[in-house]
Structure formats: structure tokens, C-alpha cells
Design goal:
Blueprint (H helix, E strand, L loop, with lengths): L1 E8 L4 E9 L3 H11 L5 E5 L4 H11 L4 E5 L4 H12 L21 H20 L1
Parallel strand pairs: 3-4
Antiparallel strand pairs: 1-2
């Protein structure tokens, strides 16, 4: 299994860094991101499969950081659509309808970015 990791800021949401890592390496990878990007104040994870165990591990490893769980509903479809829009098909695959295209590489980082954008939008709305 794998997961996406992003560092974003906002509002408006702006991507700083991203990666796709094996879920078993997520805690170590998060630590590397935290060392590289000292301005991180919140760690977000989606509420999908395996999130409880990951949340527990993150809380244990990074107790000084706020951890928020974000609703993941619809993020896979939204990420796939966004990936296909930002990475247009080439060659014969251009004739396929967008809904039938399968990304040629993992797009978990797009899912993580959408989660961050949702969180940033929600928190921006609460402040206004």
C-alpha cells in the first residue's frame, strides 16, 4: 500500500512539496518532510482504510503537531480527474474518453493535495 504526502499552504491553497511513499514508510517520510519544511503546523490524514492505525502512529511519533482527520469521500475520483487534466494523454490514448483513461502512475499525492485543499478551505471559511 502507498500514500501521498504533501506540504501545502494557504489560503488560497498552494502546493509546496509532494511525494508518494509506501504506507509502511509514512512515519519516516513525514519526519523527513517535517525536517525539510519547518513551517508545518498541522498533519492531515484521510479517514480511509488504515487511517486509525496511521493516526495512532503519527500521534506517537509527532505528539508536538496537531493531527486532523479529513473526510476522504470522493477524493480518489477527484484526484484521478485532476491527474488526467494536468497530465494529458499522449498518442492513441488521446482518443479515449477522459473517464476511461487510467493514470499510468500512482496519483496518491493528488489525493493528499485535495485533502489539504479541503482542509484549508474549511478553515478559511471558519475564520471569515
Amino acid at each position: 500500500m502507498k500514500c501521498g504526502i504533501v506540504v501545502a499552504t494557504g489560503p488560497p491553497p498552494r502546493l509546496i512539496d509532494r511525494a508518494i511513499v509506501a504506507t509502511v514508510d509514512a512515519i519516516t517520510s513525514i519526519g523527513q518532510f517535517l525536517r525539510t519544511h519547518a513551517s508545518v503546523d498541522v498533519i492531515l490524514i484521510g479517514d480511509g482504510t488504515g487511517s486509525r492505525g496511521l493516526a495512532k502512529a503519527i500521534r506517537a511519533a509527532y505528539a508536538d503537531y496537531r493531527l486532523d482527520i479529513v473526510d476522504e469521500f470522493g477524493t480518489s475520483i477527484a484526484a484521478r480527474t485532476r491527474y488526467c487534466r494536468e497530465n494529458p494523454a499522449r498518442g492513441w490514448k488521446r482518443i479515449l474518453p477522459r473517464g476511461l483513461r487510467t493514470p499510468e502512475e500512482p496519483y496518491d499525492d493528488y489525493v493528499a493535495l485535495i485533502l489539504a485543499e479541503r482542509w484549508l478551505q474549511l478553515h478559511d471559511e471558519k475564520q471569515n
